[in-house]
Amino acid sequence: MKNIVILFGTLFLFSCQSTKKFNQQLTKPIAVAQLQKDVDYSYKKLKQLHPKLYWYISKEKLDYKFDSLKKSIQQPMTGLAFYKELSQVVKHVGQGHLSVSPSLPKFTKKEAKALIKKGQRPFSQFDFEYVDNKLIILKNRSRHTILANTEVVSINSEKPSDLISLFSKRIASDGFNTTLLNRFSAMAFEMLYTNDKGNYQDSLRLVLKLEDKDSLFVVKRDTFGSNSNQKKPKLSKKERKEKAKFNSKYGYISDTKTFTRELKFLDKDSITAMMSIKEFSNGNSHDFYEDTFSILSVANTKNLIIDLRNNPGGRLNEIADLYSYLVSQPFVFIDDFEVVSKTSFLHMNYFKGSGYVTKFFRILGAPIFYPLFYLKTRKEASGTYLSNRHSKQSKPKPNNFKGKIYVLINGGSFSSSSIISSNLKSNQRAFFVGEETGGAYNGTVAAQMPLVQLPNSKVNLRIGLALVSAAGKTKIEGRGIFPDKEISPTLEDRKNNSDPELNWILEDIRREKEVEILIKPKNK
Questions:
Q1: What percent of the chain has pLDDT over 70?
Q2: Are 180 and 415 in contact (CB under 8 A)?
Q3: What SS3 class is residue 387?
Q4: If DSSP codes are grouped into helix, strand and coil, which group holds residue 70?
């Protein structure tokens, strides 16, 4: 027993020392030669893993940009400073899934536990939107009395417009699209702000515009609104099981106490329904779609509005499942994955992010897993490598929706939400309202996205391994799905709690209904 205590004590001490040493390294300037090696290493990894590196920029131009970055490094700098330079070069590849991030300070288990007790991080207490060059608070979950759509004048004495302009230099959308940057910068504001400062924020000084006056709010980590100190009603085993099933079906998000998926009727007669999907992940989506389209079929719903605004994407199997309810003919959903080589998928983070038990079983499965992915990849006569056989024909669901479909999109509609939109658009199955999607019409490089850490600066590259593209294509390269009716909300819309895109659809449905009544023959 004594030996076990000594062993765990030694491991704990080693862990603390290792964390301390790692954090100290983050603040130390790195030699010029080492930084230049990291430039070469990052480009080498991109060539090795990224299948569409020169889709939107020529090899000559990208070679020049990496070479220029290497030559520009004349003084030692920290990993954080190096991240800010490297990200501006990688951005020119034009792939939204390809990202660069600095390594952030680590916490010991004791420190992490203490932070959890302090409550939610300041930024996580808000949802933001950037509209008309203004950052506004869409939702407030803090203890402060702040109304929705309140304008943020400054964050720790910095203007939001300056920060978002800075962030936009370090992130990319797919191709030449411009609608993603402002949307994503607001949606991922905490992540981008943390990357810029190189550490997590435990407090914020927010200056907000209230009744045309600037008011200061100091927001700290907070347990306000948590259920930790509240008595939860006791549930029976059956009730707990039913609640868990319900939460999984609708994709409950505990941090925001909201649901990923939602269905509601917008009129008394159930003629028009709206399905909102925040992301294609989280929970048992299959049951949601199965139940949803059964409900629509029984209700004889004529119009379905699918809200994909600010949906960043998610699981391919989920969007394929949803699509099978939206078409009435056999279909091919996506093409086979295009990869760099037969060994591309061997670089995925197979063991990362799992516990000891899971890792143990993954070790046992590795001799099967790796050869399987290797054998599934084939070389075409053209020299292109394709992985798996995704381009098989699928059948629509028996109770597929046969009415009119409207899809709400904007610059935050990315990845999987763009892939399903591409197919709906190419098959003319839906009418699109809003903004051009942030994700490209002709596909994006994603699927497995391993994290590659540069050896000297500890800067991280997230690299997609495969081109994932919908069966439907467009001749316009590097752009997203364009709406049939373009509408962008304004700051005035937000202040009036108005949804101009949805309002236009409802008015269009009303107009069509009026025309239908007019042309319908009267009984003699």
A1: 88
A2: no
A3: strand
A4: helix
